Every structure is written in structure tokens, then in C-alpha cells.
Amino acid sequence: MRTILLLAAFLAASAVDSAALAAAPGTKIPRLPSGKPDFSGIWQTTSAADFDLEPHSARKDAQPGPGIVEGDVIPYLPAALERKKKNFDSRLTADPRVKCWTLGTPRGVYYPEPFQILQRDRDLTLVFQFGNSVRTIHTNGTRHPIETDNEFWLGDSRGRWDGDTLVVDVTDFNDETWLDRAGNFHSTKLHVVERWTFLDPDTLEYAATLEDPDVFSRPWKINVILNRHREKNFQLIEDYCYTLDYDQYYPEPTTNAAEPEATDRAAAVRPASP
């Protein structure tokens, strides 16, 4: 009970009206030559959302967090809620993340590793450190593919501008990804609408509405803050965790191991003493 009361107090203290966070008029933000906001940079959240989108206390495999779901509870259909509970029970082995699979959308945005945005007028390219997955958000007025049976790991993303906010419509998902480590999931009918907005030059507000008629009883929203990495020489580092199991078969040569070989080769070509 004490843990619940503390969590409730934390939630109340941390609740912030997202409208109040919007960048103040006149705030200078990065822009492309065309005048559109330029989201280029390396970004990362400090939230505990990937451990569980909903409010949660500490457990052995997760730090506590207030959640990022508007209203705190994901509105599951009854059968889907039972599946979510089974996912939670098997999360240490069933989470696609531990299999090193692509994180999916929107999970890649609030996963606790950085991602980089490269932007031009016609599109944004998002490169995620985890698995080096690459997602393209088209902003050139093109629409989703006509075929309705496409199933992509990251969905198909089409963006438009609403003032200085980038609104992205994402469809055509597969059902192989989870939304977090707690077993929250979706089907191929997932539909995500994202809103990317500068709060200041080094802070983004990421909001998304998720709907899936096979899993959720109604649309629901998440909101998370992203911070720009400004450390000197900061860059993405390859995180191909799916290759780790093969390291034993492809060991990296060490300096000490290479030196005897070099010595032997030199001896082989050295002229004999008269």
C-alpha cells in the first residue's frame, strides 16, 4: 500500500499539461532553409517508458516509472488483456527485444538508447542505435501504398506539417513487435498518429495516438520528452546484439596473438648468417 501511495503522489507531482510545455512564441528553433523545423540531431528519452508504458513500481527487471499513457491505463479488449498478462509472465524470454529484433514504432522512440534524425524537405530518416534499424518518414505529400496487406516492422510513415508540429500517420505494421518490456502488444491493424514538436532548441515533445480494433477498445495516447545529445563527439555506436552469439566463432585478433606470427614471418625471410 505504501508503494502505491508513493507512486500516486509521484504521478500527481509530475503531471504536466502538455499544452503548457509548448515552445513560447518567438522561441528560436532549428529550421531548414525552407523554414520548416529541423529535427536533425541525436535524441534520447530519460523516461522509464520502455520498462512499462503504464505506471509501475520497481521490480527486479525494471526501474519504477510514472508511465506515459494518458489516463494511466491502456484500454485493452478482454481477450487481448489476457494475452498481455501472458506476455508479461514470459517477458524475460518472449520480448522481441531480447531476441534482438527491430523494436518497431513507436517503441524505438522511447527505448533507452539514442537515435539520430537526418532531415531534408522531402523526408526524415531515423537511425536507431539498437539494431541499426532505419525508418523513413516521407514529407513530400505521397500517401501510403495502395496495397493493404503490407506488413512492415516499423510501419509506413507519411508526414505533414501542422504549423511547427510534424504530424506523422503510420500504418501497415506486422504483429511481431511489442510496445514495451511489460508485454503490451498490438496486431497488424495498429494505426499510430505521431506529433513531433520542439519545446526549445534541444527538447522535443513526442506524442502519439494508438488505435487497434483487434486489441484496444478505443484510441489512447502517450507522451514523452526527448532530449538532444550535446556531448562533444557524441555519436551512435553499433548495437547489433544479434551477432553476440557468434562472437566465439569469429574472435577478434589481439595484439599479443599477432606479434608471434609477425616474428615468425620475419625469421622466415631473414638471410642466414654466413
Tell me the span between the first and last alpha carbons.
90 Å
Q: Strands across the major sheet, in which order?
A: 1-2-3-4-5-6-7-8-9
Number of strand elements: 9
Strand-and-helix sequence, N→C? Answer: HHEHHHEEEEEEEEH
Question: What count of helical segments does DSSP give?
Answer: 6
| Low confidence ranges | 1-20, 262-274
Helix content: 10-25%
Average per-residue pLDDT, rounded, comes to 87
Shape: globular
The gyration radius over C-alpha positions equals 23 Å
User: Would you tell me the structural class of the helices and strands?
Assistant: alpha+beta
Whole-number count of domains? 1
Proportion of strand residues:
15-25%
> What can be said about the biggest beta sheet?
9 strands, mixed, barrel
Descriptive overview:
Helices cover 19% and strands 23% of the residues. It has one domain (48-247). The protein has a nine-stranded mixed barrel with strand order 1-2-3-4-5-6-7-8-9. It has 274 residues and is an alpha+beta fold. It has helices spanning 2-14, 18-21, 78-89, 91-94, 107-110, 255-269; strands at 41-44, 115-120, 123-128, 134-138, 156-162, 165-171, 191-200, 203-211, 220-228. Strand 5 and strand 6 form a beta hairpin. It is globular.
A few lines on this structure:
This protein is an alpha+beta fold and 274 residues long. It has six helices and nine strands.
